[in-house]
Amino acid sequence: MSAAERTGCFIALEGGEGVGKSTQVCLLAEALTARGKQVVVSREPGGTPGAEAIRELLLHPPGKGWTAEAEALLFAAARADHVARLIRPTLEKGIWVVCDRFVDSSRAYQGGAGGLGDPAIRALHDFGSDGLRPDCTILLEVDEARLAERLSARDGSASDAIGGRSADYHRAVAQSFRRLAGADPQGFRIVDGMGTPFEVHERILEALEPWLAAANGGLK
Ligand SMILES: Nc1ncnc2c1ncn2[C@@H]1O[C@H](COP(=O)(O)OP(=O)(O)O)[C@@H](O)[C@H]1O
Ligand SMILES: [Mg+2]
């Protein structure tokens, strides 16, 4: 399914823990709704009953935890269900999808920081989800010191199996995201996640202007 064949626009928000994805997904969905668009908000891993069940396995693994390969396969399986049962049918109805993380998280975490490499993750995504790409991936970036402040203020709850990994792992994730975005300037927009939530929101809307304009012109 090419972008021209569907009418809804698919936007993913990406970045490491605490950069503001969940906050900005809500603000973006509200802004799109206020502009008269129908919007479905979703998240990964998750978004469908099957994928949410896999989310629980990923974030709170039974036993010793997953090997890197098993973890990548579980993410790809959850995504395959999410894409087939929610994302594609929604886009085909002309509804926008705003998703908190998508395949670029697998590329940055399991492919980059986890050492499996980008070709393996892309192969799983091609098999599981026919390689579906967002129309635009917004990569939020926040400096490490500010991230630590945000995360400690967040809710005090224990981190999950992936969020709780070392600072080096999370640094490698951030570097991987930046590399992926740098290699695909068409598909990504890097947005500065510093400042107030509203300031970041305004930057995201500005970055999405081409897609908003295309939708208003009746192309999407
Ligand atoms: N622009 C911002 N400035 C200050 N704090 C923020 C900002 N955006 C989000 N937060 C707070 O930082 C924490 C992490 O944000 P969140 O949206 O949950 O990030 P993510 O979903 O990327 O992990 C939350 O406590 C949130 O309220
Ligand atoms: Mg979040």
Please give a structural write-up:
With 220 residues, the protein is an alpha/beta fold. It has a single domain, classed as P-loop containing nucleotide triphosphate hydrolases (Rossmann fold, 3-Layer(aba) Sandwich), CATH 3.40.50.300. The protein has 9 helices and 5 strands; from the N terminus they run βαβααβααβααβαα. The chain has helices at residues 21-34, 49-59, 68-92, 103-113, 118-129, 144-154, 167-183, 197-207, 209-216, and strands at residues 10-14, 39-43, 96-100, 136-141, 188-192. The chain has a 5-stranded parallel sheet, sandwiched between helices. α4 packs across α7 (167-183). The chain binds adenosine-5'-diphosphate (ADP) and magnesium ion. Adenosine-5'-diphosphate binds at residues 15, 17-23, 150, 153-154, 195-197, 200.
CATH level-1 class? Alpha Beta
Helix content: 40-55%
Structural class: alpha/beta
At the third CATH level, what is the topology name?
Answer: Rossmann fold
How large is the share of residues in beta strands? 5-15%
CATH architecture: 3-Layer(aba) Sandwich
Number of helices: 9
Described by strand count, sense and barrel closure, the largest sheet is: 5 strands, parallel
What is this structure, in a nutshell?
The chain is of the alpha/beta class. It is 55% helix and 12% strand. The longest helix has 25 residues, at 68-92.
Task: From the structure above, extract its key features.
220 residues; binds adenosine-5'-diphosphate; 9 helices; binds magnesium ion; five-stranded parallel beta sheet; alpha/beta; Rossmann fold
